[in-house]
Amino acid sequence: MPKAPSTFLFDLDGTLIDHFAAIHRSYKHTLGEMGLPAPTLAQVRSAVGGGFENSMRRFVSEAELPRAMKIYREYWDRTMLDDVVLLPGALPLLEALKNKGAALAVLSNKVGPSSRLICEHLGIKPFLQAIVGAQDTPWLKPQPELIAYVLGLLKATAAGAVMIGDSPYDIEAAHTGSMPAWCVTTGTHDAGQLRAAGADVIYANLDGIREALGL
């Protein structure tokens, strides 16, 4: 177990929250409106993580992309808070870390305004010093500029910081930002995939992280 960090950057989907039911429903609605086959939940889970446009490209052509994004966003804005839940262990971990004086932020490739609305809806916004998502900056994970930007908001450095996530995007973001990647298997990738992608530590869930930190 590495020395306990003082700064924690959390991914959102698959790490702190389960939003896949709403995401899957939105993809089914979008592709149905375009006369395309409905994707399976497994297909959607494997597509997300690298930013919305890149995910949508897995299902539509480049020419169809603008229309697909418009349909999706209009539907998403109406329904995004339906079926979103905190993953087990999220609230106790955030609360315990906050009580210990750690700096906490969400760093997501989900659109920033959606990320902040969801964190507020689920009651975790008060524990977070920053919630940064797509379109808040010119960058997406795993670009190192994004990590540097968020650390700057927290007045922190990579020394003593850790990225907690569920995907290779989070692992690469952590390593390009010169920090370790602690991963959970509650999202898009299993332990073998995360290990192959270079995760420094792998936990079954967030309770495992809290227990390892002695919180």
Characterization of the model:
By secondary structure, the chain is of the alpha/beta class. It folds into two domains: 141 residues, HAD superfamily/HAD-like (Rossmann fold, 3-Layer(aba) Sandwich), CATH 3.40.50; 60 residues, Putative phosphatase, domain 2 (DNA polymerase, domain 1, Orthogonal Bundle). It has a six-stranded parallel β-sheet, with helices on both faces. A two-stranded antiparallel ribbon has the order 2-3. The protein is globular and about 50 Å long. The model has no long low-confidence stretch (mean pLDDT 94).
pLDDT averaged residue by residue: 94
Give the tally of structural domains: 2
Task: Assign the CATH architecture of the largest domain.
Answer: 3-Layer(aba) Sandwich
Q: What is the fourth-level CATH superfamily of the largest domain? A: HAD superfamily/HAD-like
* Span between termini: 14 Å
Shape descriptor reads globular
Task: Give the proportion of residues in helices.
Answer: 40-55%
Low-confidence regions:
none
Radius of gyration: 17 Å
What fraction of residues sit in β-strands?
15-25%
What letter string, H or E per element, gives the SSE order? EEHHHHEHEHEHEHEHEH
DSSP summary, beta strand count: 8
Features:
DNA polymerase, domain 1; 10 helices; Rossmann fold; globular; 215 residues; two-stranded antiparallel sheet; six-stranded parallel β-sheet; 2 domains; alpha/beta
